[in-house]
Amino acid sequence: MFDKVLIANRGEIALRIHRACREMGIHTVAIHSTADNDAMHVRLADESVCIGPPRSAESYLNIPAIVSAAMITGADAIHPGYGFLSENARFAEIVEEHGLTFIGPSPDHIRMMGDKVEAKRKMIEVGVPVVPGTDGALDNIDEARAIAETIGYPVLIKASSGGGGKGMKVVESADQLEGMITAAKREARANFGDDAIYLEKYLAHPRHIELQILADTHGNVIHLGERDCSLQRSHQKVLEEAPSPALNAKERARIGQIGCDAVRKLGYRSAGTIEFLYENGEFYFIEMNTRLQVEHPVTEMISGIDIVREMIRVAAGTTLSMTQDKVALQGHAIECRVNAEDPATFTPSPGTIEEYHPPGGLGVRVDSALYAGYRVPPNYDSLIAKLIVHGNNRNECLMRLRRALEEFVIGGIKTTIPLHQKLVSEPDFINGDYDIRWLESFVANNAGKP
Questions:
Q1: Which of 74, 93, 157, 254 could form a disulfide with 184 if both were Cys (CB 3.0 to 4.6 A apart)?
Q2: What's the predicted TM-score (pTM) here?
Q3: How far apart are CA 356 and CA 325, in angstroms?
Q4: In this predicted model, what pLDDT tens digit does every residue of 398-438 receive, in sequence order?
Q5: 166 in the same domain as 24
Q6: Is 22 known to be catalytic?
Q7: How much of the chain is helix, strand and coil, in % rounded to 5?
Q8: Is 110 part of any domain?
Q9: What's the rounded Cα separation, in Å, for the pair 325 and 350?
């Protein structure tokens, strides 16, 4: 096992990784920008290294500075968390070239799944159902027209190297196709330095279902059930729950088997998440995230399995601590992402935390690096806390979540807690009757309302 792990991240996920390491008897090294001098993970880690100014490109994306910090402090391994360099294949390669262990998948798998076209091609090879569309990147407008006519409008144009909705365009009719392709390629080039795009069928009312996978280097692969991440705004997840209220036991078992078989054939290691669109009883692969997910706590709450701990064990060469037959999923869990944003306009709201009182009680977990007096910097993602609640069933979980949201106090800045309070009281959500477009409609219909 490792003696010392450098945490190449910040905020709540850096603190989450630190806690897992300390419970395993592993020392931690925190890296930070000058904007995060007083961050909680910096205060709690055994050692800390300032790696640059607030701008991410000069600090949390500064590979030479991060690797140097690991070498100087004598770290054995680096955990990238999520975001920043977590899915940067070259970073993983550089880490390993310097005799350190990258706590995550191999660089080859990161690179493979980071290219959406290649990922789709690979998943087809290993028997995973995909959304009908192109087999690879589009070469010309004539090919696009032919495929669109075959699968039928509306169609969706997506950037091969994309994410977060960038380079993504919905095309309702043939006369829009050429203009939308031009716009998508321009946006993809500006955001990812790659204008390759592909085309697939636009599903009208799908749910976003993702499967949590764990795999070690000894051929063992398990899944920890699915998460429903359909409540999204601008292609960003807002609330997640596990298990999905839309699936039955047969569908759950089917997608679990498909996912495990695929990962086993790929020879994948570490934690990974296979994401699907689900509509009319069918699953369609959209992408695989080769990292820890923001929403991993809902899976931990229903499985009792520490996913970060398993990632560390796998990276150290040990086997998973359980087999599939020992995985017992119990109850229901929901996670609310709390952002430092105006709950109506979603305008960022950085500033000093004047009051901080997280909720507690049975089945309540808060992942956050906040404390009274901490200043939320304007330089990074606005996620500041995750409220995760577990109950014996979905109804109990909802009642507990409402109570926890009432208790949650973050003073001094605006947060999205009021939005979550509205969401969990909506009949559609209470009934589990929503899809990936529901939240956008809800926000639009409630604009300006208290």
A1: 157
A2: 0.91
A3: 41
A4: 999 999 999 999 999 999 999 999 999 999 999 999 999 99
A5: no
A6: no
A7: 35, 25, 40
A8: no
A9: 46
